[in-house]
Amino acid sequence: MADFYLQKYMEKTLSYNAPMTIAVGGNSIGKTYSFTYQGVKEFIKSGKEFGWIRRYETELKKAAANFFDDLVEHEEFPGYIFKTDKEHGYIAKKPSGKDKPDWCVCCHFFALSKQGTYKGTAYPRVKRLIFDEYIREVKTPPGYLYDDMGKLFKLWKTIGRKRDDCQLYLLSNAVDLVNPAFLWLGITDEPKPGYSWHNNKTVLLHHIKDAAFAQSERDTLVGKVIAGTALEKVMIDNEFAASNDLFIAKKTANAKYRYGFKYCGNVYAVWLDNSNGLFYVNRKAPKGGLVYSLTTEDHRPNMYLVESAGKFARQIGRLYGNGVVRFENNAAREGFLKMLRMLGLR
User: Fold this and answer.
1) What is the dihedral of CA 320, 322, 325, 329, to 10 degrees?
2) How far apart, in whole angstroms, are the C-alpha atoms of residue 173 and residue 27?
3) How far apart are CA 215 and CA 222, in angstroms?
4) Inter-helix orientation angle 309-321/330-342, to 10°
5) Measured between alpha carbons, how far is 136 from 177 in angstroms, rounded to an integer?
6) How far apart are CA 307 and CA 311, in angstroms?
7) Which ranges of the chain have pLDDT less than 70?
8) CA–CA distance, 53 with 89 (Å, rounded to integer)
9) Strands 256-263 and 266-273, how do they pair?
10) What is the mean pLDDT of the chain?
11) How many CB atoms lie within 10 A of CB 29?
12) CB-based contacts of 25: which residues, under 8 Å, 6+ apart?
């Protein structure tokens, strides 16, 4: 076993037997390697298959092309050979002489953006679904899908049907605190290190903080170059890039509601306290309060659809640029800033 996560955490993570698990760890800790290894191991033992998910077809195509290369390089399964196409990963025992390999499907590749196309196909032998690189890099297009979690759960239901033995795993680095899974779970600040249960103990979160691994990464060439920078905290210490107290403050009792904005399914309510001249942003627009929708997907009855995005960006951006806006937590701040970028503010 040539992988850190596999040696130290894999068995414990699986022992919780959670319906859904989110593993957030630093670069190179080996989440992808470990779950690929575990999937192949289970197939050899029991014939159970696994599914591998990426958000977009272009990402999936790149991942599938060299999917088993690391396992082969580290000779994890010396008696077997592997191959892939754009939809499946195959395994076969090494043939002797001139015998042809007896290829078997052990892995299915799924693009979340094509979730609807998998309906009607049965996957009765898939035990685990692994969504790799779930949290996207901050500011890196393309972004998340609209109704990202809804599409993921629909895909899970399509594959698992009514079976209790099809579990979901989301793997990622700590790059974006404001991601659909955390928003769905109500996680607004950096989660505590280690294992924690969420959503009535149906979702297990493993926020990996390992001092030994971090030190080994600091001793690498890249680790030495990024020492003392913000990248060291994200890449080595597994701290979320947006996890800080900058512009964080709870709404005061004197603040009055002004307006709200709905973007990517989330409401950002803006309040003003005239006594201190500060604006506060949280997620709690009062019933009947004015709310603008910024996209046609977000638009609902009794809302106003913003047509002049550039004008709006200048107005709300000016407040933020003047340093008079405060946010209830990291998630509200980062989501608000994403909204401004969408409207053209850089």
Assistant:
1) 70
2) 6
3) 12
4) 140
5) 10
6) 9
7) 1-2, 138-141, 241-245, 298-313, 343-346
8) 13
9) antiparallel
10) 88
11) 25
12) 5, 31, 171, 173, 174, 206, 208, 238
Provide Rg for the chain, Cα atoms.
23
Task: Give the whole-angstrom CA distance, residue 175 versus residue 231.
Answer: 10
CB 334 within 8 A of CB 177: yes
Element (H, E) at 181: helix 180-185
Whose tokens are 């964080």? That residue is 248
Amino acid at 74: H
Contact partners, residue 324, CB within 8 Å, separation at least 6: 277, 278, 279
Predicted confidence (pLDDT) per residue in 16-57, tens digit = 999 999 999 888 899 999 999 999 999 999 999 999 999 999
Say which residues have a Cβ less than 8 Å from residue 98's Cβ, sequence separation at least 6.
none
Report the SS3 class of residue 235: helix
Predicted TM-score (pTM) of this structure = 0.78
Placement of tokens 């790799």 in the chain: 132
